[in-house]
Amino acid sequence: MNTTLIIVFAGLGIFIFYIYHNYKKMKNAPNIEDNDKITHLSDKNFQQEIGKGLILVDFWADWCMPCKLLGPILNETAAEIKGDARIGKLNVEESQQTASKYGVRSIPTMILFKNGKEINRFVGVKQKDFLLKQLNNND
User: Which among 2, 12, 59, 127 is placed 20 to 30 Å from 96, CA to CA?
Assistant: First the structure.
């Protein structure tokens, strides 16, 4: 019985250390530079930017670990978009009014707009192929 408890607690300790180590690694990960094709949005330019054409807007924040994981995926997606579709990013800390208006309660949230109207919404990290399919199917 004692040996079993020791093994269980040792395994639990290793698991906790693994989670903590990965959390610290992600927390300290630098923000990557956005692709030139990604439009930076704010409360001031949001309506103007979503009003024309197809745009996928990523609602994100600096402190959000899944948002950091999504950054490189959005860069790759922006580089491969065909047609007039675009990608935009809106920092919810800096543009709380817009995030609130669209009911963004968890991040990352991506909303696909066509000519100013929301046509789809995705919550969480999505892969490049999924995003490209959404953009190409609605173009």
Answer: 127
For 12-28, write each residue's pLDDT tens digit. 888 787 777 666 666 66
Task: Quick: pLDDT tens for 97-125.
Answer: 999 999 999 999 999 999 999 999 999 99
CATH assignment at residue 102? 3.40.30.10
pTM: 0.79
Do 2 and 65 fall within a single domain? Answer: no
Taking 90 as the threshold, does the pLDDT of residue 7 lie above it?
Answer: no
Instruction: State the catalytic residue, choosing from 41, 56, 67, 74.
Output: 67
> Has 67 been annotated as catalytic?
yes
Pick the catalytic residue: 64, 69, 123, 132? Answer: 64
In a shared domain, residues 53 and 108 = yes
Strand order, beta sheet including 86-91:
38-41, 86-91, 54-60, 109-114, 117-123
3-state SS class at 60: strand
- Judge if 67 and 122 occupy the same domain: yes
Specify whether 70 is catalytic.
no
Neighbours of 110 (CB within 10 A): 25
Shared domain for 100 and 70, answered yes or no, is: yes
